[in-house]
Amino acid sequence: xxxxxxxxxxxxxxxxxxxxxxxxxxxxxxxxxxxxxxxxxxxxxxxxxxxxxxxxxxxxxxxxxxxxxxxxxxxxxxxxxxxxxxxxxxxxxxxxxxxxxxxxxxxxxxxxxxxxxxxxxxxxxxxxxxxxxxxxxxxxxxxxxxxxxxxxxxxxxxxxxxxxxxxxxxxxxxxxxxxxxxxxxxxxxxxxxxxxxxxxxxxxxxxxxxxxxxxxxxxxxxxxxxxxxxxxxxxxxxxxxxxxxxxxxxxxxxxxxxxxxxxx
Length: 264
Fold this sequence. Notes:
- By secondary structure, the protein is α/β, with parallel strands linked by helices.
- It has a single domain (about 5-260), classed as P-loop containing nucleotide triphosphate hydrolases (Rossmann fold).
- It is built from 11 helices and 7 strands.
- It has helices at about 15-30, 45-50, 60-65, 95, 105-110, 130-140, 155-170, 190-205, 220, 230-235, 240-255; strands spanning about 5, 35-40, 75, 80-85, 120-125, 145-150, 180-185.
- Helix 1 crosses helix 11.
- The radius of gyration is 17 Å and the shape is globular.
- The two termini are about 20 Å apart.
- The mean pLDDT is about 90.
């Protein structure tokens, strides 16, 4: 069965796109068929995989508007073994265009039904806002939401607003919406604040917090400019090791035990 996870946080700069791409890359290196869906008008996931977003003619925008099936928009990068539904700046217009369409909140959830069984993992990257695009992403999170949280004080304030949104969507549109995990990012062990944030998050979310913590890393920040995930750009860096550990943690939790994993 395909696992559908949506990465969401309305606060920008928390490592959401970075986590989507690099987790996907390591899942793919473990022999899993992985599809990334760039559901963000900024199209950062698209650019980070070396695709010029202004050249995208068929992507998530056209799919949400019902102009093309999602399977016909998928691109494949053989070097990183990742598939991608790209985004483009045109997606910004979907905020207005979706308003008049039927089942506007379910456009993405309905579109991905055809992907069931074709991939092991479908990872959806959402914009840093609580928009109709993010709502579409949340309703498409069939197996749960992954929330990257930066280890800084302001991240805690934004997290409260996000939880209110998730709870409203659960109550009104999707009762089975669940948090798959909270991912702590940009951790600096030298600061007391970072350690305090980690403790506060663990107290609130308990076992929903991933054991793996992503450190602050220059290599992670520079990898997108080369069009590759950290697994290729700097595979021995601390950031690469952390995302590799995260992939193994997720695989184990999802029932893909270590002795079942084929390293490719």
